[in-house]
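It would be a great kindness if you could assist me with a short task in structural biology. A protein sequence and the C-alpha cells that stand for its backbone fold form the material at issue. I should value your view on which stretches of the chain appear to form regular backbone elements. The record follows directly beneath this note.
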Amino acid sequence: MKSSYPQRRSAAPFLAVAFALASVFSGVVSASAGITPSLNGKYPVGCSNVEQDFSRLRAGEAASDYWEGNPLSDGSHYVTELLVSPANALTYKVAVPTTSEIDVFEKQGGKQLQYAAVACYPTTSANTRADYVLPSGVKVAKMQRGAEAPIIGANPEATDGKWPLLVMSHGLAGSPLGDDYVQVMARLAAEGYVVFVPFHADARYSRIHIDNAADAFYVFTKYNEIAEMEAIRPLGLKQGLDYFLSKPEYSGAIDQDRIAGFGASLGGMAMMLVQGAKMTTSWGGAERVIVRDNRYKAVVGYVPYSGQSFLPAFGDSNGGVRGVRVPYLGIGGTADVVAPISRTSQMIAALGGSKYFVTIEGMPHGFRIEDAPEVFGWTFMFLSAHLSRNQADRVAFNTVDSVPGGSDDRVQIRKTLGWGSRDELEVVDYYSPSSKKYFMTGRANEIAALDALPQLWQRTGHRFATQRLDSPIGKQVRRFWANDTAANLNTHFYGASDSDCALVRAQTWSKVDEGYVMRAQTLEQIYTLLPPTPPPTCPADTVKVIRLFNKTTVNHRYVTEGLLAKMLLTLDWQVDGPVFCAGKYED
C-alpha cells in the first residue's frame, strides 16, 4: 500500500527554473566587484553514483519513500535498498553515542545507522557520461555508473587546482533527490564547489511533518523522538564529512581549508548543531552540545529552523549558539510561519562571529521563482567573500545592501569582523586530574592526541580564538616548555612580547623553546594628557587573555577576562596580568 506518511509541502524546493534566469545579473554593486556571481554557472557538472533499480518498488510505493525513510507497511526503508551498486555509491555508517554519553539518544543510542549521500562536482568538457533521469524527470548530471571514478576538473582559479567543498543539509522529510535539491546541488557545483549531501531520512526516527512544527501540543507529545531525530542529523553530517574526505578520489580535488555548509529549513538547524551549538534536548529546557566540527569556514542557512515561540532550538532565547564563531548568512522570509524571522533573528544576533541576516519580503517557508536571484546572489557572494584570505573581499561584501532581482531583499543584521574565519585558530584549554595541571594548545595534532586520552587530559570547556601562523593578523606568539625536574617545573609559557620571551630565556632552569605556535592581537595602550594612565585595551571584537600561575602545582593557565571574573581563585594562584587579545567563544 501507499505509505500514509503525509506528503511534504516543500520546505525549500529550490530553483527548478534558476537556469532560465542567467541574464538577471547585470552586477550587484560596484563595491562587490570581483565577487559578483552569475546565475548560469561557470563549469559543467558531474555527480556520484546513485543509480537505482526502481523495479524493486512494490505496488503503491514511490522512490521518495526510500529517499526520505518513510515507514511503509513493513517498516521504514532507505535509499540503499534501491541502489544498483551500493559498494560504488557513497554509503557509510553513523555511530550514535550511547544514552549514557548523550541522553537524548533514547532509541538509537549505541547503534550504527546506515547513511548514504550524493556528491556533485565541477567536471571537464571531456566528460561524456550520460545524465541519469529520475522518475520525476529530474536529471542527475553526468552521473557515474558502476565503479566509474569521479571526473573532477582542475580549478583554474586556484594554484593547486583544488575546489572548495560545500556540505549541504536538506529540509525535514526531504532528500537530495527530491524537491529539486538535486538541481540546487548542480547549480552550486557549477559555481565551483564540490557538493556533498547526505540522505538524512528523518522519518526513520520521527514522523513529524513540517506542518506540525508550530503545533505545541504535537511537539510536546512527541518531543523525545523529535529531539533524537534532530540530534542524529549533525552526527550524519560530521561522520559523513569524515568519510567523504577519506576517499582519495574526492579529497584529492578538495581544498580542505575551504569547507562551507548550506542548510535549508531543518538543515539550517543541523548546520548550527554541527558547529557545536547547544541544542535544547528536553521540554524542560536542558541544553547540550551534540557534536562540534571545526572544519567549516562559512555557513549559509536558507529559511533556517530555529525553534518556535514555545520552544527554542538552541537553549534559552537561542543563546546556545554564542559559542559558534563561524561566519554565517541567514536568508529568511517575512511570511515564514515555520521558521519565523523573529526566531532566526534572535539566533543570528547571538552568534559570536561575522554574521548577516537577509530577509525577503513576502517569502514563505519555501521557494518562489522570483527569489532566485536573491537567494543565489547572496549565497555566492557570501561564500566567495568568507572563503577568501583577502579581507578586502569581506569588506566589499559588507557594503552590499541588496541584489538586483524580482524581490524586495533587505539586510537586517550585518557584522564583519576585522579578520576572516580562515585566519582564526581555536585554542583549547585542558586539565589533567592526576597532576592538577592545565595546558592549552591550538595545534591540531596536539588537540587530537589529548582528546584521544580522556582519562589523562580533559577539556575544561574553555577556549578562545587567536590567529593562525599564516595569517597577516596579529603578532607571533612563542611557546616555551619548562621541564626542569630539579626545580619541580613542568609547564608551558606563552610569550607574545619580546620582553616576556627575554625573561624566560634568562632563567637558569631547563626549558625548550618550541617556536611560534600562533599569532595574537596585542594589547593597545591608551595615553592621556593627565594621569593616571588607563590600563591597556584590546582591539574591537577581542578580549584580554590573562595569564595565571599556580605556585603549588607550578603551572600556568590562560583564561579570558570574562572567565577570570567568574573564577574563585585560591591563595596558590597569582594573576600575572593580560598577555594578548583573542576572540571569545563564550565565558
Remarks:
- The radius of gyration is 25 Å.
- The chain has a mean pLDDT of 89.
